[in-house]
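Budget justification aside, the reviewers requested a transparent look at the raw inputs and outputs of the sequence design task funded under Objective 1. We therefore reproduce one unedited record. The lines immediately below are the structure tokens for a 110-residue chain.
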């Protein structure tokens, strides 16, 4: 699969309006490393060999490391990287206990 195709899928799946892509959209992706919140740092880029990294709140130095390795990076907002999983977890909990629920989702932060 191409990096651009993964980017488009992530953007649609996360309903992300504020999303960044670094790298070459034509690069083939065989392995993805994802980090919720502010998980990606320079050390992860050094020790985890992936074709594509997905995270949020990424420092400039980590972005440079990814690009120097000719890899790709998708950056979501911190909120978008966490609300996706939270909604899935919350849905399971409310079904398990059969209770009404309200999820506050602020689209501005997506």
């Amino acid at each position: 699969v191409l990096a651009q195709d993964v980017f488009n899928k992530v953007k649609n799946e996360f309903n992300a309006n504020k999303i960044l892509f670094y790298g070459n959209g034509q690069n083939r992706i065989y392995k993805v490393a994802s980090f919720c919140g502010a998980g990606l740092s320079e050390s992860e880029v050094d020790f985890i060999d992936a074709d594509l990294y997905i995270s949020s709140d990424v420092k400039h130095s980590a972005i440079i490391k990814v690009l120097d390795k000719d890899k790709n990076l998708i950056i979501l907002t911190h909120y978008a990287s966490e609300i996706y999983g939270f909604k899935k977890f919350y849905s399971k909990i409310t079904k398990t206990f059969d209770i009404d629920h309200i999820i506050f989702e602020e689209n501005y932060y997506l």
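The CA atoms of residues 16 and 110 lie 5 Å apart. The chain has a mean pLDDT of 89. Computational costs for records of this kind are itemized in the attached budget.
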